[in-house]
């Protein structure tokens, strides 16, 4: 069972709290060392083919070009085993930016779960925060970040990101990303909740889409990068040597060819995004099922701060729209923080403004404060949404700043220049994740992380608006040089090649025994039902406001649900080595949900995004990260074990 401890980062732990025993116990992980935190005074399922992983047979011309390029890279390549210097899991801003740098030093594969553009980056509306105005300062950005993070942020990480951020934004502009400019010809800098200055670089309300476009175009022009769309990552390939764990790539399902494809690499970067779909309503795209965090946990990487799930205060409430959508959305439509930053006001359904009752910063308070305030209003009044009004602002400015939001609302009969927008909180961002050092390194050698999947110490207990794209850009760049160094060391040691690739047993697709007799359709139905039940439990017991009793109830319910689901699969002929997209997503959702609950139970205070009724106040003695590190004895459930056994390397 995973253990929880306090301690912060540069990759070292001195002690671990075994929650089930309730005492401090020394723990020796010589390869890991974490800094203390800052001391500052200033937060689908569907048909049978879908279950096995089949997708649309459509392949874009761009994707086809990459597939052809990939097949020509090495004489060792075949349909089921591919060899690269660098393998990147995820095609958001972190993965693409990293790829463009390391491709100067070796062959690169980007594997992505759906189409290359389908990432959390593509859905980011607000922008990138960076100190680009003479009246702003790195110190001011640092202070805003640490205050929003409830003083749990790591000061060194915050300083690095806030200092290097402006240069990373300038690099994007040089690569062709187009951001909004004011009438004076300078970048238009917006302001969002928690920021003391205007410092948000944006492209209307579609910033992530513009950044993704520019990066994908650059990737497409790079002959040393191969992009494999519709490849679902299953588990990392690891081995142990001299007490340390090494990563040599990943197994995946090619959901177009229905084959298991093994990627062998000298360096692996995980940039797979978050786990929003552990909840029933999330702004995350359907691909955000916690695959990266779960794979790393199974590979014995250290996980941190999983209790801090950010609920965006303002997702569009379909229930409040004049014309209801005819089909349920796969992910909630985000109403960017910038609407409040531009003067938007929150009202309850009686048109009573309520934010000043909760915080002096009113609508510009950090997200955790605004989300809890809305949650309190909804519970007290028995309502299902509140209203966000921007109609008092000039019509032309509203339409210029928020064209995507205006168009989506108008599609459903609502004119945001005249009517308030119905909004409700939704799961949005994981502030926790795979523990990373200042160069994106993990305790697993050869494995680096960047973006939402990582926990770098920047966000602390609550992410400041528009710091996520910034963090992804900074850490993707910082991971480059150590990755190159590791690749060179691997070359010198003669690591890699066909002999290594053959050592791990291969996962298998469902056998004919499972496909026949209606077993697979039963598994599909049961998995669909189990997924919905897990999401309901997480929302009811592990939502915006928590309690020890509800968290323990969630832990018990999730454990029972997981055991019953696995027993059902295996009774129907499913084998532990079998893989399918929905089955693997389900095991990843279980894994991440359990990590969130364990972390939440370990934090006996209310800080940032974690609010518990039993411990409603901050405790200075508990101002340290929650850490889940691998035990010698791993949990025995299917979601907690890698499909391949860990090798012993010489």
TrEMBL record:
The keyword Transport does not apply. Residues 531-617 form the Fumarate reductase/succinate dehydrogenase flavoprotein-like C-terminal domain. It is found in: Plastid, Chloroplast. Keywords: FAD, Flavoprotein, Oxidoreductase, Pyridine nucleotide biosynthesis. It catalyses: L-aspartate + O2 = iminosuccinate + H2O2. It is an enzyme of class 1 (oxidoreductase). GO terms for molecular function: L-aspartate oxidase activity. Pathway: Cofactor biosynthesis; NAD(+) biosynthesis; iminoaspartate from L-aspartate (oxidase route): step 1/1. It comes from the Eukaryota. Pfam families: FAD_binding_2, Succ_DH_flav_C. GO terms for cellular component: chloroplast. SUPFAM superfamilies: FAD/NAD(P)-binding domain, Succinate dehydrogenase/fumarate reductase flavoprotein C-terminal domain, Succinate dehydrogenase/fumarate reductase flavoprotein, catalytic domain. One of its GO terms (biological process) is pyridine nucleotide biosynthetic process. Its EC number is 1.4.3.16. Its cofactor is FAD. Residues 85-469 form the FAD-dependent oxidoreductase 2 FAD-binding domain. Catalyzes the oxidation of L-aspartate to iminoaspartate. Belongs to the FAD-dependent oxidoreductase 2 family. NadB subfamily. This is L-aspartate oxidase. It comes from Urochloa decumbens.
